Amino acid sequence: MNYYGRSLAEADAGTDLESAAMGDILHAALMQPSHEAPYRGPASLKKGDCEHQCTWEGSPEDFHGEEEILRTGKRIYFLRFHGGIVS
């Protein structure tokens, strides 16, 4: 799998708290992959005031998708991924 993502948090006094919340829910999501789609966690996960959402298309042989984290409804992180079986 290849992926690229980044934080959308602006540098201000709340950035450390936002980064901690982002890391907390991202870790929780990555620890819950499904057998059918073991890419970046479940389709949706809520924890505190954060929500992790992941959408994908394809199968483990050839797939692509996007992931985002929302905090109080504001998008604070995104990631795009793709991959598959390499011969």
Short structural summary:
This protein has 87 residues and is of the alpha+beta class. The protein is 18% helix and 47% strand.
Indicate the topology:
Blueprint: E1 2-7, H1 15-30, E2 44-47, E3 50-59, E4 62-71, E5 74-84
Antiparallel strand pairs: 1-5, 2-3, 3-4, 4-5
Account of the 3D structure:
By secondary structure, the protein is an alpha+beta fold. It has one domain. It is 18% helix and 47% strand. Strands 1-5-4-3-2 form a five-stranded antiparallel β-sheet, with helices on one face. A hairpin with a 2-residue loop joins strand 3 and strand 4. The model has no long low-confidence stretch (mean pLDDT 88).
Keywords:
87 residues; alpha+beta; five-stranded antiparallel beta sheet; 1 helix; 18% helix; elongated
Shape: elongated
Main β-sheet, spatial strand arrangement: 1-5-4-3-2
The secondary structure category is: alpha+beta
Give the count of helical stretches: 1
The profile of the biggest β sheet is: 5 strands, antiparallel
Oligomer: single chain
Q: Calculate the terminal CA-CA distance, rounded to whole Å.
A: 14 Å
Strand coverage percent: over 45%
Report the helical percentage: 10-25%
